[in-house]
Automatic annotation (TrEMBL):
One of its GO terms (biological process) is pentose catabolic process. It catalyses: 3-dehydro-4-O-phospho-L-erythronate + H(+) = dihydroxyacetone phosphate + CO2; 3-dehydro-4-O-phospho-D-erythronate + H(+) = dihydroxyacetone phosphate + CO2. Residues 8-187 form the Class II aldolase/adducin N-terminal domain. InterPro entries: Aldolase_class_II_sugar_metab (IPR050197), Aldolase_II/adducin_N (IPR001303), Aldolase_II/adducin_N_sf (IPR036409), OtnC (IPR050013). Catalyzes the decarboxylation of 3-oxo-tetronate 4-phosphate to dihydroxyacetone phosphate (DHAP) and CO(2). GO terms for molecular function: aldehyde-lyase activity; metal ion binding. Keywords: Carbohydrate metabolism, Lyase, Metal-binding, Zinc. Pfam families: Aldolase_II. One of its GO terms (cellular component) is cytosol. Its EC number is 4.1.1.104. This is 3-oxo-tetronate 4-phosphate decarboxylase.
Length: 223
């Protein structure tokens, strides 16, 4: 796909996410890794609902700005995910409400922030890690991401929002949407002792659909 087309795709997906209330105001950022090792990145302080393709930041492989507006301050977050998720070609970071709410709850398992409630969560997300709070733009988040050793394509940043890596922009967006829907289900079902997928059912999904990360199965009830 040409760089021009990729810029258009970033704007199209960004607008869709914004218009559905998945990231308010000027929050959230998206990047796509190019064949030459450089990136296209959404600019800092830009609403995902009103992006101009020509103003999207173009970085080289070292992270230096080549053209466009100044990039998001979350470059360390994106860089660490690309470094550890070698097949990743796109990253989506949003401030969607249900994921942020889950990240603020006590007693969330940092290795499996959400239980395997649905097959599409397992198929598109695998498992989700929960990291401690870091100030937005804090370079220290990169070390926390590296500490996950590339085992997770979906990560929640406590009190902040989720970040998802995918092998295409479409895959990353779809996984982000599935993550937010699963977080919504989790909150709806807290205290109701719902039936989750069994380890055997999870293993079947992972082997059949090549889940992006190792998911956990079994009885893990919300709340």
């Amino acid at each position: 796909m040409t760089e021009t087309r990729l810029r258009d795709h970033i704007c199209q997906f960004s607008r869709s996410l914004f218009e559905r209330g998945l990231t308010p105001g000027s929050s959230g950022n998206i990047s796509v890794r190019l064949d030459d090792g450089g990136w296209l990145v959404t600019p800092t302080n830009a609403s995902l609902g009103f992006l101009d393709p020509a103003r999207i930041s173009r970085l080289n492989g070292s992270g230096r700005l080549l053209s466009g507006d100044a990039p998001t301050k979350e470059i360390p977050l994106h860089a660490a995910l690309y470094e550890t998720r070698h097949n990743a070609r796109a990253i989506v970071h949003l401030h969607c409400a249900h994921c942020v709410a889950v990240s603020m709850l006590p007693d969330i398992d940092p290795k499996a922030a959400l239980p395997p409630l649905t097959p599409y969560y397992v198929m598109r997300c695998g498992a989700t890690a929960l990291l401690p709070y870091y100030r937005p733009g804090d370079a220290a988040v990169a070390d926390a991401i590296r500490g996950l050793a590339g085992k997770y394509s979906c990560v929640m940043l406590s009190n902040h929002g989720p970040v998802v890596a995918g092998d295409t922009l479409e895959a990353a967006v779809f996984a982000m949407e599935e993550l937010e829907e699963t977080a919504k289900l989790y909150l709806m079902l807290r205290g109701m002792n719902p039936r989750t997928l069994t380890p055997e059912q999870v293993a079947d999904l992972v082997s059949t659909f090549h889940s992006p990360a190792t998911a956990t199965g079994g009885k893990q009830s919300p709340g």
